[in-house]
Amino acid sequence: MTTSRVNWFGKTTEFAYAESLTGYVTVLVRLVTGYWFLNAGVGKFSFVSGEAFNAAGWLANGTAGSPIHGFLLFAAETPWLLGFTNFAIPIGQTLIGLALILGAFTRFAAFWGAFLMVFFYLGNADWAHGYVNGDLFGFLMFVLVGTLAAGRIMGLDAMIERLAFVRQHPALKYLLG
């Protein structure tokens, strides 16, 4: 990986950039996936949509043939779980998208993005035309971003990994990348 030096406020910082077409495609997948989730999350906030996000309808009336329909129905009928869902989905999607765009804590964000996509895939479960759909592709995008260390290329993860705290706790590198 090649680096470029940038001087910010008297401190020199190195940024890694892609050396090959594969590196640039990896960054593009990270940015597009990040934008997708950031846009989905921000669009759920009441100051953008004009109304508070409420997952109750999707949870209660999702695909009846879903393998997790019982759990989704339970979540819709349990006030604290519904409240948590209504808070966590917009915040989570926004933070996941922002992390991917910045290339910061990329693996951590990709894990949670993939986690949400599993719920969306199983919850929608509209497999009348086959098992391959947009939710499955979203899951695969998060898997690609997380496994290819997409945040280390033209992202903040390369800089974060050089922090003394991260070097003292090398296990933190598994959240980066």
Architecture overview:
A hairpin with a 2-residue loop joins strand 1 and strand 2 (11-17). Helix content is 60%, strand content 8%. The model has no long low-confidence stretch (mean pLDDT 87). Helix 1 packs across helix 7. With 177 residues, it is mainly alpha-helical.
Q: What is the structure about, briefly put?
A:
The chain is mainly alpha-helical. 60% of the residues lie in helices and 8% in strands. It has one domain.
Provide the low-confidence segments as ranges: none
Strand content: 5-15%
Number of domains: 1
Count up the helices.
Answer: 9
Q: What helical percentage do the residues reach?
A: 55-70%
Head-to-tail CA distance between termini:
13 Å
Give, in order, the helices and strands: EEHHHHHHHHH
> Total strand count, please?
2
Shape type: elongated
Largest sheet: 2 strands, antiparallel
Walk across the major sheet and give the strand order: 1-2
The average pLDDT value, as a whole number, equals 87
Radius of gyration, in angstroms, nearest whole number: 19 Å
Q: Label the structural class.
A: mainly alpha
